[in-house]
Amino acid sequence: KNQVEQSPQSLIILEGKNCTLQCNYTVSPFSNLRWYKQDTGRGPVSLTIMTFSENTKSNGRYTATLDADTKQSSLHITASQLSDSASYICVVSAGNAGNMLTFGGGTRLMVKP
Amino acid sequence: NAGVTQTPKFRVLKTGQSMTLLCAQDMNHEYMYWYRQDPGMGLRLIHYSVGEGTTAKGEVPDGYNVSRLKKQNFLLGLESAAPSQTSVYFCASRPLTGGITDTQYFGPGTRLTVL
User: Which of A47, A90, B26, B107 could form a disulfide with A23 if both were Cys (CB 3.0 to 4.6 A apart)?
Assistant: First the structure.
């Protein structure tokens, strides 16, 4: 069964600090991995997407890494801001025609002033 | 361009009642999806559609029905609501461009409570 596990489940950091969120997956065949940001009461919004051949992708202060051999990904947030408070969801695509996605449970990040 | 919209935003039902959730997208996307999101769990796919007039079951289809009569609309129906269907429901859509990196665009969600 395809699975995506994220850690930690929740995280509190001070504004301006950096943090790293982890994602482990067992999805086959692998097509791509996305990180989504979900603000409270809103739908998920895509931050980054990486295919098998990519091992890093940045979007402003967000940098995602992918190790396809160990089936791990991380999302690093630099110089956190209060607006970074949200859930971050790791999503892996099995590459079938319907673009079926397997979602992790998310990491809930709270940035405090 | 409103993207993906969902109605209603909130709804409370009694066990056994029926209702329909509406999803609309104005991006001319071929694919549309319905998910549910429960606390501590990842989004799970209920049903999806690869085009007007076609639907298919996802991971957790039991207790739900869907219809895609128009390309821009995807309806999710609950014929006889149960407390286990209390959840937040998200609709998503994506274009049919053939690329493996196509992103799904999500609506704002519908919070449903079944008493």
Answer: A90
Distance from chain centroid for Cα B88: 10
Structure tokens at B7: 């109605």
For B83, the 3-state DSSP assignment is: helix
Terminal CA-to-CA distance of chain A, rounded, Å? 41
Does A68 touch chain B if contact means CB atoms closer than 8 Å? no
Find out whether B64 and B76 touch, Cβ atoms under 8 Å.
yes
The alpha carbon of residue B99 and the mean position of all alpha carbons in its chain are separated, in whole angstroms, by: 23
pLDDT per residue as tens, chain A (113 positions): 789 999 999 999 999 999 999 999 998 888 889 999 999 989 999 999 998 888 999 999 999 999 999 999 999 999 999 999 999 999 998 866 556 789 999 999 999 99
Distance CA A86, CA A37 (A): 7
Half-sphere exposure of A9 (CA within 13 A, CB side): 5
Q: Which residues in chain B have their CB less than 8 angstroms from residue A95's CB?
A: 100
Nearest in space to B18 (alpha carbons), one of B65, B60, B80: B80
Nearest CA of chain A to the CA of B79: how many Å? 25
